[in-house]
Here is the input.
Amino acid sequence: MLRYVTTNAGKVREATEYLGDDGVTQFDFDYTEIQSDDLGAIAAHGAREAHREAGEPVLVDDAGLFVEALAGFPGPYSSYVEDTLGVERVWRLAEAEEDRRASFRCVLAYCDGEPFRASPDPIDRDDRAAAAAAGADPNAEEAEPLPVKLFEGAVRGTLVPPRGEGGFGYDPIFEHDGATMAEMSTERKNAVSHRGRALAKFGEWYRERRAVS
Ligand code: IMP
Here is the structure.
């Protein structure tokens, strides 16, 4: 069974709607979020850690809000900023700007402990280089990281005063095509969202992978 690694029930709701037929279950595991400005590196690291913990195929979902006028802030720090400043304060920051364009990005990282042919390259070379630079034992796990495959999705929108009761996180201040993500049903959000786009790519690859294995 594929484990969707998150403590966020909103993400699970969206993933289950998309991957329901393929059998997905929540793995409520708080993986280490390494400090990086690359969502892919954070997700890949989390997927390896979660796979070692679960011993089963895992999918880690790392997402963020990138505000154009704020040089991509809060980006990879979106979770910390939501917890400390809150969504309303992020809107206030954007309100002071003329340009209120923003995007949501999502990276899904898959790891099942098996090698696989993948494109883009599934090996996280940063991890490997960092381990080598730190003088790690070449036989140690972190020097030869598990293969991880990444799937990315993004959606563009505009920041607006909070509207809507659905969704989670920054959804109430993110408008796309006339509606905030918090005003959309899960189905409608999935059809346009960063997560929906990444899940569509993952779903296609995963079905093929299961068919040949
Ligand atoms: P993480 O991927 O769990 O680290 O989430 C990063 C931050 O982005 C958290 O504050 C989430 O609430 C927020 N976030 C992630 N995905 C979404 C989304 O689909 N809509 C709105 N906020 C999101």
Remarks:
- The two ends are 14 Å apart (CA to CA).
- The chain has one domain: 2-212.
